[in-house]
Amino acid sequence: MNKLQITLAVIKPHVVKNLFALESIQKRIECEFEVVGIREVVISREMAERFYAEHRSKFFYNRLLSFITSGPSVALILAAENAVSKWRQIMGPTKVYKTIYSEPDTIRGQFGLSDTRNACHGSDAMESALNEINVFFPDFDFEEWRKNHPTL
Ligand code: RTP
Ligand code: MG
């Protein structure tokens, strides 16, 4: 069943440095989603630790934190029907090599450089979206927003 959802997207630092890539992704987003919030942010170590807490024990954790704090990122709250899976489909698979034959038109296929520098982030469920949105947009009032979007 289709239902209105919100999700958190993060455009990662190597893409934000590339104006062509950033504009192309923003245009794609604007065609597919309502942009509920957008902010450019240099992610601090403390924010990154909260955001990536589930990956604390992974071998790539330190590399991931160094990368994500290395320069400005762009965080967006996106709304659409099935926004979580829709954005993840547009992003493509985590591992960029998997995009080469089957999903070259995804954002990770176009702008991903490696498993860690894979261009963008997308929440994996509405519950994680709300927690992640809180890291980037602590003033965002989901209940207030939902009042004006009764189909959520
Ligand atoms: P995301 O959370 O960023 O939307 O990506 P995802 O669900 O597709 O991937 P996840 O498993 O949650 O991994 C989070 C981020 O960690 C980095 N990563 N590096 N082998 C590696 O070096 C590796 N594996 C994952 C990526 O930046 C990934 O997006
Ligand atoms: Mg994930």
TrEMBL record:
Q: Which Gene3D superfamilies match?
A: Nucleoside diphosphate kinase-like domain
Q: Which PROSITE patterns match?
A: NDPK, NDPK_LIKE
Against SUPFAM superfamilies, the record matches this protein to: Nucleoside diphosphate kinase, NDK
Give the enzyme's EC designation: 2.7.4.6
List, alphabetically, the Pfam families matched. Answer: NDK
Task: Tell me which stretches of the chain form a coiled coil.
Answer: none
The GO terms this record gives for MF are: ATP binding; metal ion binding; nucleoside diphosphate kinase activity
The enzyme class is transferase
- Active site (record annotation): H121 (pros-phosphohistidine intermediate)
Its UniProt entry gives the catalysed reaction(s) as: a 2'-deoxyribonucleoside 5'-diphosphate + ATP = a 2'-deoxyribonucleoside 5'-triphosphate + ADP
- UniProt domain Nucleoside diphosphate kinase-like: residue ranges: 4-144
* Origin: domain of life: Eukaryota
Can you name this protein? Nucleoside diphosphate kinase
